[in-house]
């Protein structure tokens, strides 16, 4: 079989996975690209990649999504990198600007506004808004400079009592069992020592990589996170379609 085309995320939260892959013999069997979440999803959806860590909302876009590993980007409560930032209390927000880099986080924000805060807001993709969704490394060090900060992992657990899986490793076709086992072991090795990825990372005010990688993030795709994926997709399907949106 030719090399498996793998798309991974360029954010800090995926670095433990990447360190595991790069130190594993599985690297000889993959063609690895590093992208932002929506691009990972696009590649898997369009068959430009065979396997990727994709936002869970994109599962609805793949004909036969195969979650092939025991690992994910997840949290059990606050995640400290998926936010609504706002100039005013969430109850007063009338417009929300979405983040083009991840449909899942946008959907999570809209689910929480509808079912937790019970606030019907207008959605925009650009321009001024009362609040905006922002994810990943672009949020690091920004909490102190914004009037109102809402961690979506925290409020998801308040709404559902469940942890959350933001992205999972998904294949769009059957892959060899020996490859899956080797890939899964590489991920396990990488997340077993996440602090090793910290040296050399940019320094941000009021942001602690060690806490983020060892406490905020929870990489195990357990029963609770699988239940959360099912619940999220159920609620996501109740949202109205947005006319202008990224492909994923």
Automatic annotation (TrEMBL):
<comment type="pathway">
    <text>Quinol/quinone metabolism; menaquinone biosynthesis.</text>
</comment>
<comment type="similarity">
    <text>Belongs to the MqnA/MqnD family. MqnA subfamily.</text>
</comment>
<dbReference type="InterPro" id="IPR003773">
    <property type="entry name" value="Menaquinone_biosynth"/>
</dbReference>
<dbReference type="GO" id="GO:0009234">
    <property type="term" value="P:menaquinone biosynthetic process"/>
</dbReference>
<dbReference type="Pfam" id="PF02621">
    <property type="entry name" value="VitK2_biosynth"/>
</dbReference>
<dbReference type="InterPro" id="IPR030868">
    <property type="entry name" value="MqnA"/>
</dbReference>
<protein>
    <recommendedName>
        <fullName>Chorismate dehydratase</fullName>
        <ecNumber>4.2.1.151</ecNumber>
    </recommendedName>
</protein>
<comment type="function">
    <text>Catalyzes the dehydration of chorismate into 3-[(1-carboxyvinyl)oxy]benzoate, a step in the biosynthesis of menaquinone (MK, vitamin K2).</text>
</comment>
<keyword id="KW-0474">Menaquinone biosynthesis</keyword>
<dbReference type="GO" id="GO:0016836">
    <property type="term" value="F:hydro-lyase activity"/>
</dbReference>
<keyword id="KW-0456">Lyase</keyword>
């Amino acid at each position: 079989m030719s090399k498996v085309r793998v798309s991974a995320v360029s954010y800090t939260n995926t670095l433990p996975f990447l360190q595991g892959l790069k130190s594993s013999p599985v690297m000889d069997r993959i063609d690895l690209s590093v992208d932002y979440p929506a691009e990972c999803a696009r590649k898997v959806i369009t068959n430009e990649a065979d396997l990727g860590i994709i936002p869970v909302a994109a599962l609805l876009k793949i004909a036969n999504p195969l979650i092939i590993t025991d690992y994910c980007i997840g949290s059990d409560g606050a995640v400290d990198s998926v936010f609504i930032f706002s100039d005013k209390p969430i109850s007063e927000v009338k417009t929300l600007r979405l983040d083009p880099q991840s449909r899942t986080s946008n959907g999570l924000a809209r689910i929480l506004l509808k079912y937790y805060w019970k606030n019907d807001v207008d959605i925009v993709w650009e321009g001024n808004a009362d609040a905006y969704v922002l994810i990943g490394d672009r949020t690091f060090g920004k909490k102190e400079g914004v009037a109102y900060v809402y961690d979506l992992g925290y409020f998801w657990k308040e709404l559902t009592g469940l942890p959350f899986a933001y992205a999972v490793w998904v294949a769009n076709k059957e892959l060899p069992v020996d490859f899956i086992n080797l890939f899964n072991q590489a991920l396990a090795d990488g997340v077993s020592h996440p602090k090793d990825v910290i040296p050399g990372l940019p320094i941000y005010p009021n942001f602690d990589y060690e806490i983020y990688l060892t406490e905020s993030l929870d990489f195990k795709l357990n029963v609770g996170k699988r239940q959360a994926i099912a619940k999220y997709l159920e609620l996501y399907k109740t949202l109205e379609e947005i006319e202008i949106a990224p492909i994923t």
